[in-house]
């Protein structure tokens, strides 16, 4: 991992098979990792809140179902404004699974951000 001017660069890009959407790829990976409901997927660094792969999968699918009922899908842009919390990942991945485009909002962003 490399950090340059407020940007974190990770490892190599994911190789998502051409026949899968990114959302389906993530769902498949969550299913692979979460069969026993004991493996931790995310940990909130400030309060040590944890979520397992199985719970993350359940929450994403439930949220995506609700978004679809409200017409969220391909061609829709979903703006996310959230404090740092595990549910941000749930909402973001649910929108991606619906085919929506995600953008983030933060009223406290500085001009450089």
Automatic annotation (TrEMBL):
SUPFAM superfamilies: Acetyl-CoA synthetase-like. Gene3D superfamilies: N-terminal domain of ligase-like (3.40.50.12780). It comes from the Eukaryota. Residues 39-112 form the AMP-dependent synthetase/ligase domain. InterPro entries: AMP-dep_synth/lig_dom (IPR000873), ANL_N_sf (IPR042099), ATP-dep_AMP-bd_enzyme (IPR050237). GO terms for molecular function: ligase activity. Keywords: Ligase. The keyword Ligase applies. PANTHER family: LONG-CHAIN-FATTY-ACID--COA LIGASE, NONRIBOSOMAL PEPTIDE SYNTHASE PES1 (EUROFUNG)-RELATED. This is Putative 4-coumarate--CoA ligase 4. It comes from Papilio machaon.
């Amino acid at each position: 991992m490399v950090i340059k001017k407020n940007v974190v660069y990770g490892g190599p890009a994911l190789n998502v098979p051409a026949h899968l959407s990114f959302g389906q790829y993530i769902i498949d990976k969550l299913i692979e990792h979460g069969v026993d409901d004991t493996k931790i997927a995310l940990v909130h660094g400030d309060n040590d809140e944890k979520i397992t792969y199985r719970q993350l999968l359940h929450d994403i699918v439930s949220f995506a179902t609700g978004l679809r009922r409200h017409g969220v899908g391909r061609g829709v842009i979903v703006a996310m404004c959230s404090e740092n919390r595990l549910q941000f990942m749930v909402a973001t991945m649910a929108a991606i699974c619906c085919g929506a485009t995600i953008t983030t909002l933060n009223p406290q962003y500085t001009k450089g951000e």
